[in-house]
Amino acid sequence: MPIPNSVQTAINAQIKNELQAHYNYLGMAVHFDSTPYRGFAKWMRLQATEEYGHAMKLYDFLSDRNGRVELTTLDAPKTTYDAHPLDAFRTSFANEQLVTAQINDLYELAQKEKDFATLQFLAWFLQEQVEEESTVLLMIERLELVGNDPAGLLRLDDEAGRRVAEAPAPASGGGK
Ligand SMILES: [Fe+2]
Ligand SMILES: [Fe+2]
């Protein structure tokens, strides 16, 4: 079944949203790279890579459905945040909540269009958003707990720096 036009348009919009998320996280990495928090810089950079992966997952899915990928302009990301790491992580949480709402809207549209293949494909993204929101929220809670204690902040930074890249997301189909 060809992908409905409305769904194709919405998936293209989501490719842009994920690339924008990629760029926003890269902006946070730039910020942390100008502070002593190099662990958070690494964490943000890995997160940026994940977001790029999300965009490419949507790209491959659209391509597999014989759709047409549209690429558009991104906004320059913010690269300066407050000295306390909470500022960047709170921004990240707000961004993740926005992406969750975007995925939910996309899911609702696919449901309305009875585009079952897209619905199944999007289930992975719904789960991913649950994970992303909970990871960032935990970081915020721990940062709030340590407050301005340098030892605590450096400990969290150190831990964030040990984050490793996730296994690549499963391919959308076609054995890719
Ligand atoms: Fe994402
Ligand atoms: Fe995300």
From TrEMBL:
UniProt cross-references to PROSITE patterns, sorted A to Z: FERRITIN_LIKE
Gene Ontology molecular-function annotations: ferric iron binding; ferrous iron binding; ferroxidase activity; identical protein binding
Highest rank taxon of the organism: Bacteria
Subcellular location: Cytoplasm
Annotated Ferritin-like diiron domain residues: 1-147
A matching Pfam family: Ferritin
Cellular component aspect of the GO annotation: cytosol
Segments passing through the bilayer: none
Signal sequence residues: none
One GO biological process term: iron ion transport
Catalytic activity of the protein: 4 Fe(2+) + O2 + 6 H2O = 4 iron(III) oxide-hydroxide + 12 H(+)
Entry's family note: Belongs to the ferritin family. Prokaryotic subfamily.
Function: Iron-storage protein.
Protein name (record): Ferritin
